[in-house]
Every structure is written in structure tokens, then in C-alpha cells.
Automatic annotation (TrEMBL):
Top-level taxon: Bacteria
Entry-linked SUPFAM superfamilies: Acetyl-CoA synthetase-like
Domain AMP-dependent ligase C-terminal, chain residue ranges per copy: 361-447
InterPro entries documented for this protein: AMP-bd_C_sf, AMP-dep_Lig_C, AMP-dep_synth/lig_dom, ANL_N_sf
Name of the protein: AMP-binding protein
Pfam families tied to this protein: AMP-binding, AMP-binding_C_2
Domain AMP-dependent synthetase/ligase, chain residue ranges per copy: 104-302
Amino acid sequence: MTDNEQTTNVRYKYWSVAELLPREEMEKLQFKRLVEQINYLWDKSSFYRQKWEQNDFYPEKLKTIEDIKYIPILTKEEIRISQEKDPPYGMMRIPGSGPINRIAMTSGTTGEPVLIPFTKEDYFGNFCEGGVRGLWAAGVRKDDILHCAFGFLPFIGLAGLHDAGEHFIGSLVIPGGTWDSLTRIKMIQKLQVTVLAGTPTYLLHLANVAKKRQIDPKSMGIRLLLTTGECGSASVPNTGLRLKEAWGCKIYDLSGTQETNYITWMCEEGVSHINEDLVYLEILDPETNEPVEPGNPGKLVVTDLVQKTHCVIRFETGDIVNGIETGLVCKCGRTLSQFKGYQGRMGDIIKIKGVCVSITGIENVIRGIKECSDQYEYMALKDGEKDKILVQLELKDDVDPSKWEDIGQKVAETLRETFMINMNVKIVPPGTLPLYDLKAKRFRDYR
């Protein structure tokens, strides 16, 4: 978007015309872009050509968007192996795509971090485009002062919002990569930050640090919170309620993958919309890889429709999601498909006695009990031949230790009512569990 177009756009509610496309037009655009990507990669990428030929897929098989099912799924492990064989980027840098202008790197929570290169065109023209829509829908404007609370790391989820706010909307964006939490709080106040972005875990922690210094987060002037990098209010409603209670402002959730783009963002109606002109989503049965019925849960597979530096096609994200609703018109006026939230990572969801236990479900229970702090973790253990779950959590500092046992029983009962199975609950002293500045790792499997 040019400066002139951006200035003109201030008068309008929507950032992109894609947000209002009729369903038929959106599907035509998706198919057109998919065909272009497949032909591009067939010509440019030896990795994809070899992978597709081995799986008997050829570009001419694409007759409709549903024919994407003939393309083999791409896993993160395949990306890692390609980068080991052909460092540093492996199959994530398409030959001839142009000079690298920016890199990102995954957190490495499921293995060796993946490096993700961007050309300038891809980063600002495609990736940041996915994020700026979320900023604009949340109400971020040129007169806002935006701060993305994260270290100066190659975590593109918050870096993209930083750059989208500065370069697209024209907001004053405050850096603070090496600030500790107390310094961050002081600078938010001094510089009169109005929009604060971060992971839910860190923004809750930041609010607690402020309270311990007798600073009410609600008095700090923040009018909007933007959360990304972890499951937010769209997936864990009680996390959203805690954030709203702490900061006293509206909460908007964005999600995505570093390998593809910002996938979803939230409108003023609290509905998560999909950037479906930029990414194509499939929800598949985790066991069969067949599409689930519309609106049903399953594993998320994403295809990048626009980027040319590192195109990922049918990328298995490792996320289990609640489903997608297509063909609805939101009260906000947008026609984009609606995203129903995340259940958690495939590796964080375990089955006990036939019941799937997810981190988002446990988090929603814990954060719905007022005495519980924001610090918790759960683990899968072996008890003889049986699997069991242990939940460890800290209570708020002002809770009398004599009440810990009763509250632990309350948490256990609520978990049992929610999941219909018994879980062991252990209350640990404040400061026992690790603090996280970015993404929290709440689950450990010791079986």
C-alpha cells in the first residue's frame, strides 16, 4: 500500500478489500494463487519437484481447490532435515527469489529451530500485510503509540506487528528489546504507550510486576492489548478475562505460524477472521489426514498462497484447532471465514482413558479460579501400566497457605467436571515454577 493509499484508507473501516470478498470470488482467488504457487515451485524448487514426483503429484492434477488433497503434506522435520543437508535455509529459500532482507527463527519447542528467510517484498508486502489487518481491525491508528513487549529475537510474530504498525499505519512504535519488566513498565508510562502487544503469558506477568510495585496496570494508559504467540482469548476465554481484568481494556488476539503468515486476527465483535487470500487452511483428521466435516475440530494444515521466498505447501503446523466456519457474514461486515480457536499442540494433547486432555482446557479451568495465579504446568506420568496427569500450580501471593489444600481440591474437582477424569493437583509455593518472557512451555511428558 502506498503512502497516499494508506492516508486515504484512514477513512475506512477495513484495511483490505479481501475482507469483503464474496465467497465465490474468494475461492476463485485462492485457486488462482494456489495454481501459481504450484507452477512456480515446480519450476524453481528441486525439493518440491522431487517430493511431488515421488508421491505421484503433478501440477496438472489441480483442477479445483479440493484437488490440493493430492499434494503430499510437508512436515517441520522435513524442513529441518533440508536445512541440515543444505545450510542455512535448505528448502526454505527458493532459488531466484531475490536477496534476503530479514530472517525469522522458530522457538525450537518441538526440535531444532527452523530458519525462515524473507526478501523485502515478502516481508513487507506479504507477511506484514497479514498482520496489519489485525492491527487495523483492533482499532490501531496513526496517533497510537505501540509497544511490542519482547526481546530483540528473531520471533517474527511480534516483530511483524512492530513493523506493520510503523511502516503501514504510521504509529509511533517503541522498541524495548533488552528491557526488563520493571523498566518496560516505567517506559510504557513515560512514553504514554496506548497499544501493548505480547504473549498472554508475558502480559499477565507484566501486570503482576506492576501490581507488586503498587502500580495499577489500568492506570498506565493502555487502551488495547494485542496477544499473539500463544493461545489467547479466542482459544482460552478465561485468559482473556484475566487480561481484561488486569489491564482494563479491550483484548484482540492474533495467531499464525512463522513459516507462513498471520493466519487469524480478531474483529471488534470478538470473532477471529482468517487471512484466507494469503493462506489456505485445511482441517484434517489427525489419524486419516482426510478433511473433517465443516466446523469440526482437527489438525491444522496451512498452504502459503503468496510468499515466494519460502513457500510452504500443505504444512502440518502441529496444532489441533476447533474448526472453521465458512460462508458467514460477521456483524462487523467481513465475509472472511471464521476461526473457532486452538485446542493446543498435537504433542501437548494426550489421551487418558479415551479422553483428550488439552493445555487450553486445563488453562481455562485454572484461570477461571480466582485464587490461582497465572503460573501452572501439567505433565503426563506412568503409574504402573496406567497413564496419569499431574497438574502443578501456584496460588496468588495473598492466599493463606492454610487454604492451599482446599483450593487444590477445588481445582481437581473442576478439572474432573470438565474432562470427566481424575487428575492429581499439587499446589507449590510461589516462585517454584519457571517464568517465561515469551512462549511458555506448560506440558512435559515423562511417560
